[in-house]
Design goal:
The chain has 236 residues and is of the alpha/beta class. It has a single domain, classed as Carbamate kinase (3-Layer(aba) Sandwich). The protein contains 8 helices and 9 strands. It has a 9-stranded mixed beta sheet with strand order 4-3-5-2-1-6-8-9-7, sandwiched between helices. Helix 1 links the parallel strand 1 and strand 2. Helix 1 packs across helix 3 and helix 5 runs parallel beside helix 7. The longest helix is centred in the middle third of the chain and has 25 residues.
């Protein structure tokens, strides 16, 4: 029995690189698809938002001379590429999925609406929501917060390459201590970077809990859904 009925799964674009350093590692992509298939088999309704940092990041592009708005639009397109790749990988193993885009780009994907997404979820399709919010200056973290709230998800599962929220960056500070649970207010007070401030505030104000875990370890998504405490719960 799954712990949640409907989830918003936020996947990192950087994680899709695997060991390559750029682009899409098919091994990592297929592992993600298989984990999602296992979760869907439990009857969990799955909405997904993927970042685009493995291809292009608007903010870093702006630092290299790109116009910020155009850079962010390039980043939105990168999320669509990743979403199509995941949809293709899911289709190859028999999982029905639907790609929705925040900006119109038929026939690549259907234009996103809340009701279209929920109807697809209730039909048992995995819904991949791409293009961020459709606006510049907003990250895919904010896009995932917005979509999670809109589709009335029980939780946002933030799949990263670390296994939770720590007192400091565990990749830089070996003395960092992991939290099993932490409140939004404590994140603000400690200045921890779980997601950007806009995304975190949206989740706090709308009562959407975030569960941070390491998606790159195969089987972890099922462990989270079965109730194992392998990450960090962020809540009000």
């Amino acid at each position: 029995m799954a712990k949640f009925k409907r989830i918003l799964l936020k996947l990192s674009g950087e994680s899709l690189m695997g060991e390559q350093g750029y682009g899409i590692d098919t091994k990592r992509l297929n592992e993600y698809a298989q984990q999602i298939k296992e979760a869907a088999a439990l009857g969990v309704q799955i909405g997904i938002v993927i970042g685009g940092g493995n291809i292009f990041r608007g903010l870093s592009g702006a630092g290299k001379g790109f116009d910020r708005v155009m850079g962010d639009q390039m980043g939105m397109c990168a999320t669509v590429i990743n979403s199509l790749a995941l949809s293709s990988a899911l289709g190859a193993i028999g999982v029905k999925s639907r790609v929705l885009t925040a900006i119109r780009m038929e026939p690549i994907g259907e234009f996103y609406t809340k009701w279209k997404a929920i109807e697809s979820l209730e039909r048992g399709e995995v819904v991949i929501m791409s293009g961020g919010t459709g606006n510049p200056y907003f990250t895919t973290d904010t896009g995932s917060s917005l979509r999670g709230i809109e589709i009335e998800a029980d939780v946002m599962l933030k799949g990263t390459r670390v296994d939770g929220v720590y007192t400091a960056d565990p990749e830089k500070d070996p003395t960092a201590v992991k939290f099993d649970a932490i409140t939004y207010d404590e994140i603000y007070t400690r200045g921890l970077k779980v997601m950007d401030l806009t995304a975190t505030t949206m989740c706090k104000e709308n009562g959407l809990p975030i569960y941070v875990f390491n998606m790159d370890v195969y089987g972890n998504l099922m462990r989270v859904l079965s109730g194992e405490n392998i990450g960090t719960l962020v809540h009000n």
